[in-house]
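This section describes the prediction task in plain terms. A model, or a person checking by hand, is given the sequence of a single protein chain and must write out its three-dimensional structure as a string of tokens. No templates, partner chains or ligands are provided. The sample shown here is typical of the held-out split.
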Amino acid sequence: MTTSLELAYNTDQLPLTIPEYGRNVYQMIKHAITIEDKKERTKCAETIVKVMALINPSQKDKDDYKQRLWAHLYIISEFKLDVECPYETPKEETYSSKPEDVPYPKNDIRFGHYGKIMEDMVKAATIYPEGEEKKKLIKHIANLLKTSYLQWNRDSVNDDLIIKQLGQLSDGKLTIDASELRETADILKHYKKKRNISKNYSKNKNRRKYNGSF
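The expected answer:
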């Protein structure tokens, strides 16, 4: 049971910059800063780095893990620790500077209900070599468009609209005959069956969980 004293300790302490090392390492570094002799201060820092390596052994998987430990040492000390570092002394500006804004990629999607992946598939099909394989690919994509449309609007879909939007997405390079599109009723029946299977699975899962609790 947590006592009120423990709660006070946990909430009153300052947050740790790198919590993986724990508060004791922070106290050791805080003490090292107060050592007047630089040689002794450096020896103390070397010992602390060894302790940090033991506490966080995952750093050893990295090629520059020792340099990382020294960098963490400086970061935890808020760059107040003046010691002989075996590597280039980390600069505070390197770790406190604000990264440059990364521009968010803008993709102009013509039809939101199809999504970017479907539009990319259509574009890829336009440069596919002519032949029987391309015809099968166009048929497959057109039926995917119809399926996606029905997921967005399950009331109805006009096959002519699917053909028209296939042409728009391909800049007029792809088309298909309406007879090659799946029947709307078949697609809706398939999704209805999948929903029923999903519902039955959830019910059985909950039933097994309930029975297993006794």
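For orientation: Confidence is low (pLDDT under 50) at residues 1-12.
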